[in-house]
Amino acid sequence: MSKAADTEAKLRPITFADLVHLEPRLGDLMSEATARWQPRRRSNDLLDVWYRYFRPKLLRLVGGRRMPHPVLSTPQAYQLAYDTLLASLKSGVPTT
Q1: What is the pLDDT of residue 30?
Q2: Would you say 85 and 54 are in contact if contact means Cβ atoms under 8 Å apart?
Q3: Most CB within 10 Å of its CB: which of 3, 35, 76, 88?
Q4: 1 lies in some domain
Q5: For residues 49 and 37, is the Cβ–Cβ distance under 8 A?
């Protein structure tokens, strides 16, 4: 990779697709989130499912609790994955 391309890659905001490329299990978690939630259920049920099932899995894959990684261990990566997965769980539609 050229120095210019490397610099551009560092400056470009990271996407959920980038995170999935680095940690494919995030894609599996996205598939589970979109398949599991049924919109007719109450939002309290959604939050219960999120905090009991999805968030513990997410914490093992991205953010400060996972094994050190220059991208996946950052708070920004965690927040992006958290927001994206929770939005998909709420809507039942994958978001990227």
Answers
A1: 92
A2: yes
A3: 88
A4: no
A5: yes
Residue 3 belongs to a domain? no
Q: Residue 41 is part of which domain span? A: 14-91
78's tokens: 């965690």
- How many domains does the chain fold into? 1
- 8: in domain: no
Across the chain, which distance is largest between two alpha carbons, in Å? Answer: 51
- For the entire predicted model, the pTM comes to 0.77
Alpha carbon distance 23, 25 (integer Å): 6
Q: What is the mean pLDDT of each run of 10 residues along the chain (96 residues)?
A: 49 89 95 72 75 92 86 93 90 60
**Could you give the CA distance from residue 37 to residue 41 in angstroms, rounded to a whole number?**
8
CA 20 to chain centre: 8
